[in-house]
């Protein structure tokens, strides 16, 4: 360069070198040191390609920032539209619109039947539409076509992913193995990192987690997350931490590698939870201590857990006199004014989950008055940009000692309580990583218990949140949540046959939650709270809803507890932290 600053061959060669190392702006600036009138044909062609690369990069930047209309208009304004048309078709495929993508690829093929990018895109669109037979037929034709030497990493990666999508796993793995060494020998680049990431994904899906882990380590070096593939676990896990300046590929490699590491890790966790809710001593007051021990370990393509909970509940002692407590039959017959309720038990459970399915089965605490099985089965999927989960479950209502563990009437000796909610729910959420997010849940349940009247519950819940601060290691959000509940009966009382759980016929609440979350290298914490307004309406109810339980001659056996309505404001506060 110093000896021949005006030599077109030198200018072209060095600009080509700069462009090959992803320095397009520098390459264009180097070409511009010579007037365009003195450019060779190769220099002119290179300049046009670099300008188009810059235009495509700007269009992608606009799209990533949410200006999809502006990005699309920029591409459609280009006179030589093949690359723009291919990019638009690629975007349609990313946006889950394979029909539009297929039309775009075929429009290019109508002019350029041998365009390799369009042929590969057509295959990918056919797979997305659900035409694997036709896609496989066209893949065979692409396999037979000559490929560049050395093989193109991006072409090979897309071919391998396509073969895997049509069920040809050995063929896909063979293609990845063919070029993985080439990717490792090249200078770090997005192309080689992307190939190694997809090779790792295939190995993981194919039941080869250790090979996948090795490929993710190579992808970290190829993507310049590290100078060399990390060999120590501490180095590896440190590289899975997200940084604010990560691009989409770096974030993807970090997240995938972290998921796989957690998938392969066996953990033992002990947690202790303390809850205190004020009420009437002896039955609605509640102090709860729960110690949870859980073993979480890999199993097949998911994770299994085995769990034991030590639960201690204490409802205190009666505050009133012999005939003042509406508990069991105490109001009519009388009970000792020093009557005290407590329960201790151990629950056992086990379950399994993967990316789609989750299921568990177990017991309520053994040692409680009422013990039975609980569990659930759920399936998660995606629709457009919305993630959803459909669940069928049987769960305990843990709002009081009566509803959770059941108890015994001091006068009749009858056991009652232990309420379980059996039903289905559908939940959904929308969060694309930007400032806005939505969530919602709808559920319907049948509530049953031992010697407790049956009840039905319907719940609709939803909310919106806005991230005031949305950084990799710090998040501050504020939102608005709403809940609407409907119960067939009000069984919130504690007399014999009641359930001891909050069950208004109509309930509506609005809440404004605020959350602050932060993470450092060794600590994570969250502070949060909400202010809410709620209104509840209850109807008149029988004090003893199951007449067959009441002893003959009991006074006021047909007594009615009056309903009413109430409204007010409330608040919640919470703090959470962990280290390691």
Would you mind describing this structure in some detail?
Helix content is 35%, strand content 35%. The chain has 580 residues and is α+β, with helices and mostly antiparallel strands. It has a 15-stranded antiparallel β-sheet that branches. It is elongated.
How do the helices and strands line up, and which of them pair or pack?
Blueprint: H1 8-20, H2 24-31, H3 41-64, H4 68-76, H5 82-94, H6 98-111, H7 116-129, H8 132-144, H9 153-165, H10 169-185, H11 190-205, H12 209-222, H13 233-239, H14 248-264, E1 267-277, E2 286-299, E3 302-317, E4 327-328, H15 330-333, E5 340-353, E6 357-363, E7 373-383, E8 386-396, H16 401-405, E9 407-408, E10 415-430, E11 436-450, E12 452-470, E13 474-487, E14 494-495, E15 506-519, E16 523-538, E17 541-542, E18 560-561, E19 564-579
Parallel strand pairs: 4-14
Antiparallel strand pairs: 1-2, 2-3, 3-5, 5-6, 6-7, 7-8, 8-10, 9-10, 10-11, 11-12, 12-13, 13-15, 15-16, 16-19, 17-18
Helix pairs in contact: 1-2, 1-3, 2-3, 3-4, 5-6, 5-7, 6-7, 7-8, 7-9, 8-9, 9-10, 9-11, 10-11, 11-12, 11-14, 12-14
